[in-house]
Specification:
The longest helix has 17 residues. α1 packs antiparallel against α8 and α5 crosses α10. This protein has 11 helices and 12 strands. It is of the alpha/beta class and 344 residues long. β2 and β3 form a beta hairpin. Strands 5-1-6-12-7 form a 5-stranded mixed sheet. It is globular, with a radius of gyration of 19 Å.
Length: 344
């Protein structure tokens, strides 16, 4: 397991438009060549207790309380459910991931062993889930998925789950089930160091802002502009690529003035390019979770048990190895609540 979790905190950021353009090109290539034998060809199997869609749907007061991170199912080590049985019969678990988010899920072009295997904070979690369910951290098939295809990949049965810096939200809970949170973050602005933009405020007036389609950043920008929290003259519709990293490339090329995304991702992007920086404080509070099919109750509960154990033994080491260089040594602000709430 230590070999799988081999981590390289001292990696230097790639930096430069050329490298970013290459990475974006590789995204398409790897998406085609990654193993597809994990594809189910249909919806994921139902959970052991046959939970109905209505029970999995978010509560009516989710938006009011703004607590989607507290609505997952209670953890369990029971592996007798239909979904887990199918995974065990297959002999591997298929997980949708990113392959171009620096330090989260990416292929390091500077890797000295020449393999350029997927690595990062989310990849560590994927290996841990495979280890707990299949007794082998290598029994995972990775499938590269664009930001705007994460939910569809789950619903179509292309993957068993998605571990891809995916924010738990009330809106998304109508379409997929989430685990308990494994990371805390918030939306933030990324801009060139020479920019006059100071944060998520009036300095965005007349500026072109990039956010990935299908992201919570995109939803937040739309909602805030309608409510008046975001200045009306900010252009939030011209540039919305399918992958978040594409926004950094657009920023480097001068095609946009700023990027809005999760602060945890933005910090990694700033580490890749010394000409950009985070400006202003986070203006939302969000939590990443593992996304699964809404009918897969048994898998949701089992993953929650894996995450509960991982937060006690494994999470901190992965944070130190991958994220401390960009987010700082103090992980308290990124660790999920210790008093996690669940549904029965």
């Amino acid at each position: 397991m230590q070999a799988v979790r081999r981590l390289r905190a001292g990696l230097r950021g790639w930096g430069g438009v050329g490298a970013m353009a290459v990475v974006c090109a590789l995204t398409v290539i790897f998406a085609l060549v990654l193993p597809l034998s994990g594809t189910r060809g249909g919806p994921a199997g139902t959970g052991g207790q046959g939970v109905a869609h209505g029970e999995q749907a978010r509560a009516d007061d989710c938006e009011t309380r703004n607590d989607p991170q507290d609505r997952s199912l209670r953890p369990s080590s029971n592996e007798s459910g239909t979904t887990i049985k199918k995974i065990k019969d297959n002999g591997f678990i298929t997980i949708g991931v990113d392959q171009n988010s620096y330090r989260w899920g990416y292929r390091d072009p500077n890797n000295t062993d020449g393999k350029a295997e997927l690595e990062g904070f989310d990849i560590d979690i994927a290996h841990r889930i495979a280890e707990e369910i299949l007794d082998d951290p290598t029994k995972v098939r990775f499938r590269a998925i664009p930001t705007n295809q994460r939910i569809k990949a789950i619903q179509d049965g292309q993957v068993d789950m998605v571990v891809r810096t995916m924010t738990i939200s009330c809106k998304r809970m109508d379409e997929v089930a989430f685990s308990q949170p494994y990371f805390k973050t918030g939306q933030q602005v990324l801009a060139p160091k020479s920019s006059t933009i100071k944060g998520y405020d009036k300095t965005l007036a007349g500026k072109k802002i990039c956010s990935a389609s299908g992201s919570t950043a995109r939803d937040t920008l739309e909602a805030d502009q309608k409510s008046g929290k975001l200045v009306a003259s900010a252009d939030i519709t011209s540039v919305n690529p399918p992958n978040q990293l594409d926004c950094l490339v657009r920023l480097q090329l001068g095609e946009v003035d700023a990027v809005v995304t999760d602060g945890a991702l933005a910090a990694s992007q700033a580490a890749q390019d010394p000409t950009v920086k985070l400006v202003g404080a986070p203006f939302t509070t969000e939590y990443y979770g593992v996304a699964m099919n809404r009918d897969a109750e048994d898998l949701v509960r089992r993953v929650n048990q894996v995450l509960e154990d991982y937060l006690k033994d494994g999470w901190q080491k992965s944070y130190d190895d991958w994220l401390s260089a960009t987010l700082g040594d103090d992980s308290a602000g990124s660790r999920p609540p210790t008093d996690q709430k669940y549904r029965d």
